[in-house]
Amino acid sequence: MSTLKTTLTGYTGYRGREGHYAFLLHRITGLGTVLFLVIHIIDIALVYLSPKGFLDVVALYQTTLFGIGEIALVFCVFFHGINGLRIAYFDMFKPANWSIETERNSTRITLIATLILWLPATFFMARNILIHNYGLFGG
Ligand code: HEM
Ligand code: HEM
Known about the structure:
Elements: H1 2-13, H2 18-49, H3 51-61, H4 64-93, H5 100-134
The structure holds protoporphyrin IX containing FE (2 copies).
């Protein structure tokens, strides 16, 4: 219990700004993607185990709530991937450059690159939800 308390106060109390946020986001997006992957393995297995169940699951994924979840999943995968490459780059090629300043700059670049990939994907995914679930844009 005291370990949990230390973890929670450390997560929220530490004032590391960009480096701290990058660490937290990397952990949340990594765990979020793992959670998705577990569900995803079960849903794809249904094709074999229960084809009718698979169609039900696909129908569930078409609901607005799951659509929003998918948009969040795309953010998780992009951020985690790009930030993971950033960490690996510094670890392998520039270990002497791990400083607060480079951490802050490279985190900002990571976030911008994530947004450049994520926003267009969000546009198309959100548009699909509006077309298919709400009949907008001639849907
Ligand atoms: C482009 C692909 C990926 C890259 C480059 C990548 C990179 C990394 C790196 C470098 C770390 C260690 C971070 C550190 O030591 O500070 C890490 C941690 C982690 N990754 Fe990935 N990863 C990728 C894909 C994935 C996927 C697909 C999942 C989930 C299925 C995942 C789940 C995790 C988790 C749970 C952690 C531990 C987070 C933590 O300790 O805070 N990663 N990843
Ligand atoms: C909303 C996003 C996603 C959708 C709609 C989706 C859909 C699918 C579908 C339909 C299959 C079956 C492919 C086939 O065998 O014909 C599949 C397989 C698979 N997916 Fe996803 N997927 C998504 C995201 C992801 C993500 C983010 C990961 C990794 C973290 C992932 C990992 C896998 C793996 C490992 C397989 C099995 C490989 C294969 O059968 O080819 N998927 N996915």
